[in-house]
Amino acid sequence: MNIEIKKSYDELSRFAALEIKKLIDEKPNCVLGLATGSTPIGLYKELVKLHKEGEIDFSKITTFNLDEYRGLDGDHNQSYRYFMDDNLFNHINIDKNNTFVPNGVAQDVDDECKKYEELMEEKGGVDIQVLGIGVNGHIGFNEPNKHLYMDTHIEDLTDETISSNLRFFSSREEMPTQAITMGIGSIMKAKRIILLISGKNKADIVAKLFSGKITTELPASILQIHNNCTVVLDEEAASLLNK
Ligand code: PGA
Description:
Its EC number is 3.5.99.6. GO terms for molecular function: glucosamine-6-phosphate deaminase activity. By secondary structure, the protein is an alpha/beta fold. The protein has seven helices and ten strands.
């Protein structure tokens, strides 16, 4: 893994945006793998800014999001489809028909997962996958467990994830307990991965991530064997790493 430590969240976001711009300059019809959560919001702001400055043309871009809550449709203001429209797609010249987020209300979930996987393949695979990390080490919604899944699948959210994301919902009852998520195999197939980690609350998991072990109990640890993965940390997230 390549490690980039940035002074601030803004610098981290800017760095990631410029890496994506570089890829789009080289390959205007590339496929981006995108993430939700608080971490990539700064990246999306930078991408919108670069687009408004005439620096990035998204007209030929395809995107695949990592995951979606089971039970929320795209109009729900906490769905990840809504998040992506609101934070990025509504502000750039992307064709929304080329933006894919798993359908959280699909009747046949197995079929939805299989089709999502096939579609990624059909579009040539993901060129850059953006990732965040949960405080428990999850990537996408691949939660710590005795085993991890290869492909897009339905996942039960852990109590830790539910507690961590509860802040976005008005009550625990409203918070979904499952999600459709790309699997570890789907993520590892990306040609390049950029893992963004910001803030003091991630410092513990960062220290564990760089302990040299690979374990399903820390799903992000598998990224250590990806041959083109860059971890971008701000100083707070990196604060417990040995210099
Ligand atoms: P966060 O979520 O960016 O809101 O911290 C990251 C994640 O759970 O993957």
